[in-house]
Design a protein that fits this description.
The chain is mainly α. Helix content is 74%, strand content 3%. The protein is built from 9 helices and 2 strands. Helix 2 packs antiparallel against helix 4.
Length: 196
């Protein structure tokens, strides 16, 4: 589990996952995939690359040793059994659920909402990375501080996207009193709505 390749791969997955979740939140408030932000190719790549990396990670987890009460377990059968008991269901749901929602509810905002589920995967990978790195107390404090700043910025972004989405839903269902009306920005571009 302490392999440098696994740590680098997890860093790559975390980085792409943050980009994926942030971008899909923008797509959610900007409208359909073929309007708003980015080309359909960029949106499709943003959704497919993390799924491919999750599949690769799932395959790697079937071969990754683990520690059990301080002892390194490297027996293949025990590794597979442990992964099936502890993490396979969650990993499988992170790959399969967004794919099924995308196929079952095409041209719907439900498919973009499914990517919010990946926030849980981000949290799991962040905890896993912290345990793999074995940082000193000073470096661990810096890591926690950076993680805190990143979490605050990320939550601000998600809340802003949710707030715009909520206003769009209110207008869609015919409400005449929304925060869009209060700020006199009904019909504005998504960028203006996001910045308010």
């Amino acid at each position: 589990p302490d392999s440098p390749w696994k740590i680098v791969f997890n860093c790559l997955v975390i980085f792409l996952l943050v980009i994926n979740i942030s971008y899909m939140a923008f797509v959610l408030i900007a409208g359909r995939k073929d309007e708003g932000i980015g080309s359909p190719l960029v949106v499709d790549m943003c959704s497919k690359i993390p799924q491919i990396l999750f599949l690769i990670e799932m395959a790697m987890n079937f071969f990754t040793t683990y520690y059990y009460t301080g002892i390194l377990v490297n027996q293949r059968i025990e590794i597979v059994a442990n992964y099936l008991k502890t993490g396979f269901f969650w990993d499988f749901s992170f790959v399969l659920l967004p794919f099924c929602l995308e196929k079952g509810f095409s041209n719907s905002r439900i498919e973009q909402l499914s990517f919010i589920l990946r926030v849980f995967k981000l949290v799991l990978l962040s905890k896993q990375m912290q345990s793999y790195l074995h940082l000193s107390d000073k470096a661990n404090g810096l890591y926690e501080l950076l993680k805190l700043f990143g979490t605050i910025i990320f939550l601000y972004h998600l809340l802003a996207c949710f707030w715009v989405y909520l206003g769009q839903c209110e207008i869609l269902y015919g409400s005449q009193i929304t925060w869009f009306h209060e700020k006199n920005i009904v019909g504005s571009e998504w960028q203006t709505l996001y910045l308010y």
